[in-house]
Here is the input.
Amino acid sequence: MKLTRTLVLGAMLLALGAMTSRSASAADPLDNVLLLDLKNGRVTILLRPDLAPKHVERVKQLTREGFYNGIVFHRVIPGFMAQTGDPTGTGTGGSNYPDLPAEFTNKATFERGTVGAARSSDPNSANSQFFIDFDAAPSLNGNYTIWGQVIDGMAAVDKINPGEPPPYPDKIVKMQIASDADDASKAAATKVLKAQQ
Here is the structure.
């Protein structure tokens, strides 16, 4: 009987330890920071699960799968936005996952550096494509899902080659979640986050 109680207690402590570990990692602020490497520098994006939890979950999933690495910016309109996330590079493709339901909000607006989910005329057609605004775009407010905000590196975004499509499109060199990155990248992302507070 004593051995059984000891085993049960041990199992409970292991389970509690695993739950605590998961909670600690889920609470890691770097788990909601995206590092987007372009040829002209790194762009740091604060993810907004408070506004669009399903979209943020999808972006994290695809990022961790390496989906975005090497994908071109297929639509870049100066003064408006730079769009990417289509593996075909045509603007008509997406991931193999189902489309997402719209997560429109009135708690945030499309400003310089806002990251939104690209979609067709169907509000529930967002998949893997996204765009970064060069400037405020009030016509998008309440009509497109906001899932992030650039907090550092807009100068690199400003240098993305323009065009629909660009004759020489820029690519995503690498995209990663900051909590998955090397120690130097984690330290840099932490510094950027602290500067925002």
Summary: The CA atoms of residues 114 and 154 lie 10 Å apart. Confidence is low (pLDDT under 50) at residues 1-25.
